[in-house]
Design goal:
The protein contains one helix and nine strands. By secondary structure, the chain is mostly beta strands. The protein has one domain: Thiol:disulfide interchange protein DsbD, N-terminal domain (Immunoglobulin-like, Sandwich), CATH 2.60.40.1250. A hairpin with a 4-residue loop joins β5 and β6.
């Protein structure tokens, strides 16, 4: 309940006319590393503009929306990993310690696909903030050639 309220409030603030400029402070790149004929390690790398941060997959409940990876034609194997400089900071807006990355982070998930699959499709959902504002959660679809 608290998480939904926070997201709604952030969305209302972001919709305010003073935010007329469309902000896109995160830029993604994607790659798949073959581990076996049907197993791949998917890398979703986020480059984050200066002053902004993107939340960890493991950000606690009740805080900002954690980053998530969803695959439409693959099955995940194990938990996702993150490589980057993780920061844990108390944020008054959420009244808890948040986990996030600045500058860059590589979200990594091992997946299995059906034999003959030529591309992986899915989406990344994420939320970004800086010291003045948070943007509403955003979902970006992706296709990764195998």
């Amino acid at each position: 309940m608290m998480k939904k309220l926070a997201v709604v409030l952030i969305g209302l603030l972001a919709a305010h006319p003073s935010f007329a400029q469309i902000l896109n402070p995160v830029h993604f790149s994607y790659r798949a590393v073959k581990k076996s004929p049907t197993t791949f390690e998917v890398h979703v790398k986020a480059l984050v503009d200066p002053t902004w941060h993107i939340y960890s997959i493991f950000n606690p409940d009740g805080g900002a929306v954690p980053t998530s990876l969803t695959f439409t034609n693959a099955r995940t194997v194990g938990k996702a990993r993150e490589t980057g400089s993780l920061k844990t900071v108390y944020e008054d807006a959420f009244k808890l310690h948040q986990k996030y990355f600045e500058n860059t982070v590589d979200f990594i998930q091992v997946i299995r696909v059906q034999p003959g699959t030529r591309q992986i499709t899915g989406k990344v959902e994420y939320m970004v903030c800086n010291d003045r504002q948070c943007l509403p959660p955003k979902t970006v679809p992706f296709d990764i050639a195998l």
